[in-house]
Amino acid sequence: GAVVSQHPSRVICKSGTSVKIECRSLDFQATTMFWYRQFPKQSLMLMATSNEGSKATYEQGVEKDKFLINHASLTLSTLTVTSAHPEDSSFYICSAPGSGFNYGYTFGSGTRLTVV
Amino acid sequence: GQQVMQIPQYQHVQEGEDFTTYCNSSTTLSNIQWYKQRPGGHPVFLIQLVKSGEVKKQKRLTFQFGEAKKNSSLHITATQTTDVGTYFCAGTPTGGGNKLTFGTGTQLKVEL
Q1: Do the chains contact at A105 and B44, CB–CB below 8 Å?
Q2: Which B-chain residues 3-42 have CB contacts (< 8 A) with chain A?
Q3: Contact B107 A101 (CB under 8 A)
Q4: If we measure between CA atoms, which residue out of B105, B103, B96 comes closest to residue B39?
Q5: Could you read off the pLDDT of A36-92 as tens digits, one per residue?
Q6: Cis bond leading into B39, ω under 30°?
């Protein structure tokens, strides 16, 4: 089945630094990738939609300049958290729509970001 | 914007008891999907419902999509400790492309 590989799984960074998170579709081409953020014991909140070869679409309230999304190829989408602050600490997950009627969406394993 | 609520927020059951989570959307959905997220893990796709009134079963799990395509439910018969996790419904609004809005989730704990 479809597999999305997400790295890193955990990262601790200092305030003011930037962190890049990668999501790769391993056995299929993902023209679209969704990026979610999840706080402890809460639901997944869609941050943005990345589309291969075009600009990402951000949800209302998500800062474009802070959360840089790049979808450089059909198998790679990246999220860069720039000038990270402690309030950016969260669980970030990418997902790609499945191929076929009943495949659902495939999620990466997530990245636990802690900003100190 | 679209809101998808789930009740209950938490549910503790004894192993062998049944469990149901209910999902309600503020807008009509083109389809509803259900996901399970284990503690510390990522959401895993369970099923997708598309038709009004549709009912699907997966072993001990029964999924329903409401006639108005605004609500859904997941029922687990005779829960097991392996059922522990948070269950999310997620839907795409009618005419809203493929962007999923997740429900608030129901956390299930199963005790022996």
Answers
A1: no
A2: 33, 35, 41-42
A3: no
A4: B105
A5: 999 998 999 999 999 988 899 999 999 999 999 999 899 999 999 999 999 999 999
A6: no
